[in-house]
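Q: What structure does this chain adopt?
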Amino acid sequence: ALLVLFTLIVAGCGALLPIIVSRGIDQLGGAGGSALTIAGAVLLVGVVGWFSNWIARRLATRAIATVVYQLAVDAFGAATSHDLSFYDQFASGKVASRITSDTQDFGQLIVLINDTAAQLVESLILAVVLFTIDPILTLYLLAIIPLVVVLTVLYRKLARKVTRSGMRAMANVNATIKETVSGISVAKNFRQEGHIYAEFTQANRTAYNVNVRRGFVLTIVFPTLNAMGGLITAALVFFGGLSAAAGVVTVGAWYLFLMSFDRFLFPVLNLASFFTQVQNGLSAAERVFALIDAE
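A:
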């Protein structure tokens, strides 16, 4: 409950800052406000937001560490409860990777979800304020959201597929290394160094090819979103400038719309820039729960 409360405070402070600056611009333009008062309000909101964010980060870190710890315990318990036939099908290196690396990737996914949720709440607060100022410009601002949702839905399946393939390839490399190091004495006794080296080279080359394709796929979305954001920004500058020149909206309100666009786009760009970690976390969760639920 405390984590949710402080996350909401952080989102509220983030939404309040551009509103204060916008009102301050209008007041200064009309000689009805003090720059010192506006600066003090911005400083106060910034300090409250910083302390709230610090407390929320501490609470989130403790909660996520508890979840990752319990998940690792459950996965290790499931691994030890399986009989030998299970390890005939799954290499011990892959099982170890699920208990260690995959649980940590799942924890990173929770961090990203928490941060994105706070940003979405901030965007929602700004959307309500903007609708009260100028519904038409707000609709221009929100026009990118359906396009981004459609793009994300179409992109998700492809990115999920290549990410899962990349993680499996790396698990094969880790398993090959672990099995080789564990049985190196046997391999040397039978002069099989060349064979195990060739086996590792093949697994490593496969992982390289898979991760190159994965990198190409995961880098498509970010330039696309930047291009869409540039078009929306140009529309806001043009139509907002016409509205401000005609006196429909104030200069401060126009500034608020321009600044709010970054607030709306930032959660999407955040997800896009960290899409690799998101896909890693989702794939890691599948792998860990598959180990726990395996019969």
